[in-house]
Amino acid sequence: MNKTCSLSFLLLLLFHHLTAAKAAIGVSIGTGGVGVGVGIGVGNGGGGSDNGANSPGPSGSSSVPKHDNSYTALQAWKSAITDDPLKILDTWVGPDVCSYKGIFCSNSPQDATTSSTVAGIDLNHANLQGTIVKELSLLSDMNLLHLNSNRFTGTLPDTFKDLVSLEELDLSNNQLSGPFPTVTLYMPNLIYLDLRFNSFSGTLPEQLFNNNLDAIFLNNNQFGGEIPQSLGNSPASVINLANNKLSGNMPISFGIIGSNSKLREILFLNNKITGCIPQGLGIFTEMQVLDLSFNSLMGHLPDTISCLQDIEVLNLAHNKLSGELSDVICSLRSLVNLTVAYNFFSGFSQQCSRLFNVGFDFSDNCIPGRNMQRPQPECSVIPGGSLSCLRIPTPKPIACISLAASLNSMHTDHSSSSP
């Protein structure tokens, strides 16, 4: 929040040096490796108003612009908020909506010579209780809507499809529920979607990963069913599906069809995913974090993981994986943390020993002569021993540059020959 406040103050200073802008100003900051976007709209963003709810602006003055739609939208929302412990809405009085706390304004992108318009709403950590009303769709010039850490219930109104300028939507850490809010799929400029820590349920729509989203945070909900086959089509740099109830196999086309080289982080941990790790996973050569832990994945690791030369954190713990950890995995140049605990691996190469000092957890496997391994009876029957993972033959050593084209070609041939 300190970073957000500092940035907001800086933008306010810059605002006085700008000429009439044709578009609302938005700034995104990537923090850490997770790519969390923070957008700040330029405007007054706070301060109360002495005007009554129906008081006109000063005669002959344009300092208080008329925002008929914005005033209607925000007053309707104010009426739907049942608890405001921080008294934020006490500033939401009068027609000058740009003076409302948490509201940021900029010149209208349609006509810079007219009054300013609402460009963003930032009410993070406001602890508001209530619902999200349909009238907010009147704010068609809004670029960002940040509402994380409140107590909003219900779901998103279908009218939100009219928010054609919205780029960032953060609804995390609320009490929202119902199926995936498909209205978000019809916001043409949305690039940042954060729905984590709510109670959304049901399946994920296929279209989700076909949209032009750069960040998708859906973790800590109740989503279930299989992961859509379109997963590999997403242009996102970060996808977090952790702590849901997703089941079935990982899409076999993941990393093959519509492969996305931008993907930096993807988290599947703590779901109910079964089957094999797709061979196409190695195509994501710029990936830095891969977490598949706490699922029911089986079989051997694909050799194509050796193409993940930028991977720093690889967590495969608490699955049913087997085989040996080879040099091609433990020699990944950027790897600083490899966790394979609570699987059924039967050994690892000498190269893996170099990771002992930086982070290599291989406890509770079936590795002879090593401490903290499973009791021998548990290792007598390997889960998924009869499982046949689809593996397209690849040359040794693997030519990572040509891997994508090879897998795509052979996968297409396989698909066309299937009944």
Automatic annotation (TrEMBL):
Leucine-rich repeat-containing N-terminal plant-type domain segment(s): 69-106
Family annotation (InterPro entries): Leu-rich_rpt, Leu-rich_rpt_typical-subtyp, LRR_dom_sf, LRR_extensin-like_regulator, LRR_N_plant-typ
Compositionally biased region (Low complexity): 51-64
Pfam families named among the record's database cross-references: LRR_1 (PF00560), LRR_8 (PF13855), LRRNT_2 (PF08263)
Record flagged with keyword Repeat: yes
GO biological process: cell wall organization
Main localization category: secreted
Signal peptide: 1-23
Protein's UniProt keywords contain Phosphoprotein: no
Stretch list, region Disordered: 47-66
Location of the protein in the cell: Secreted, Cell wall
Swiss-Prot/TrEMBL keywords: Cell wall, Cell wall biogenesis/degradation, Glycoprotein, Hydroxylation, Leucine-rich repeat, Membrane, Repeat, Secreted, Signal, Transmembrane, Transmembrane helix
UniProt protein name: Cell wall hydroxyproline-rich glycoprotein
Gene3D superfamilies per UniProt: Ribonuclease Inhibitor
SMART domains given in the database record: LRR_TYP
